[in-house]
Amino acid sequence: MTSAPALPTTHPLISGKTTHSPIVQAYQGVRPDRRPIWMMRQAGRSLPEYRAIRASVPMLESCLRPEIVTEITLQPVSRHRVDAAIFFSDIVVPLKLAGVDVDIVAGVGPVMGSAVRTRADIDRLRPLEIEALHPIVTAVQMLTSELGEIPLIGFAGAPFTLASYLIEGRPSRDYINTKIMMRENVESWNALLTWAAGVTGTFLRAQAMAGASAVQLFDSWAGALSLDEYQTFAAPYSALVMDAVSDLPVPRIHFGTKTQDLLTAMRDVGATVMGVDQHTPLDVANELLGGQTPLQGNINPDLLCADWDILADHTRDVLRRGLTAPAHVVNLGHGVPKDADPDVLTRLVELVQEEG
After folding, report:
1. Which burial class, exposed, middle or buried, applies to 173 when counting CB atoms under 10 A from its CB (0-12, 13-18, 19+)?
2. Is the Cβ–Cβ distance between 35 and 352 less than 8 Å?
3. Given this model, what pLDDT does residue 321 score?
4. Which of 45, 65, 121, 347 is an active site residue?
5. In this model, does residue 31 exceed pLDDT 60?
């Protein structure tokens, strides 16, 4: 039997730089001395320094220029003193690198040049080649050098969410075309989701090998599915993604919104940590997961604009409920809203680090 591939000796988890960081310990189910915190979309539109960079650079271009990715990823670490950086990218970046005609349109989101709805459309898709990932690998290496003992979290979009964008052609409220394909053309669905899983797995593994100390798989649209639908049409393909990094000693986080009924099924695709949105209290999530899984979440991002006392009381309640889990990484129940006050975010991080 051959031994499993190891991370490079320079990797922060192997060299020891991030091994004992509060966030890596929590992801491994060990309670650190204080509760660690980072926030989804912490690098983004809420920061004036981000808006200044992006004023003249399109979104996808900014995701493929390592020096810009590095600067944007580091901004919230410098400003808020969070316990981890999240790699600045977008879930459609691997599609772009695989040759898909996609753009991110302001005020709309990802828009495909043409929707992928027939078997011929699917057959024209090409795998993500390792050579195309050079800007991603370079950016991760630059970041881990700058971050030192602060972990970098890599991320990618789950196959169901990526496939939904491809099929709908743009963001959708009802996912009608997606549900038609998965119900009426199972063969095409399997081909498309298998392709998406291959692209995502390649993208995620490249980040892990280059230096990410954890990876997070986002299934933004999974909450549109029933449990039976998720287990049949989404879970097998997310499992392929998790399997692509399962031989590496890197924590694997899984997150989706409005997924209370799916939490166990999402964990069982191969996640070692479950992200929880604001709709499911952490103690409820812990019970659903059998008390065996470290949790991440779940401050309500809507309350970032409320009076401070309301936000502080809510945050303390989240911390209290998080104590029921084996370990808890504090985060929001979704991403930072674009109109959030950066000073409030900094104050929130300070509160968690003091209370934790």
Report:
1. exposed
2. yes
3. 98
4. 45
5. yes
The confidence band for 215, taking pLDDT boundaries of 50, 70 and 90, is: very high
Q: What is the pLDDT of residue 2?
A: 45
Instruction: Give the DSSP letter of residue 46.
Output: T
Distance (Å, whole) CA 282 – CA 150? 25
- Out of 27, 35, 41, 79, the active site residue is 41
In a domain, 282, yes or no: yes
- Residue 165 annotated among the catalytic residues of the structure: yes
Tell me the two tokens of residue 160.
């169901």
Domain CATH code at residue 190: 3.20.20.210
Whether residue 237 lies in the annotated active site: no
Edge-to-edge strand order for the sheet containing 214-218?
Answer: 85-86, 152-157, 214-218, 252-255, 273-275, 295-299, 328-332
Is 281 a domain residue? yes
Residue range of the domain that includes 192: 12-355
Which amino acid is present at 181?
A: M
- Sign of the C-alpha dihedral computed for residues 193, 118, 132 and 161 taken in this order: negative
Question: Residue 175: pLDDT band by 50, 70, 90 thresholds?
Answer: confident
CA separation (Å) from 76 to 39, 107, 136, 147? 9, 23, 20, 12
Q: Please classify residue 355 by burial: count the beta carbons closer than 10 Å to its beta carbon, then call 0-12 exposed, 13-18 middle and 19+ buried.
A: middle
Question: Does residue 7 form part of some domain?
Answer: no
107 has a pLDDT exceeding 90: no
- The dihedral over CA atoms of 8, 93, 132, 56, expressed in degrees to the nearest 10, equals -110
pLDDT interval class at 243 (50, 70, 90): very high
Residue 50 among the catalytic residues: no
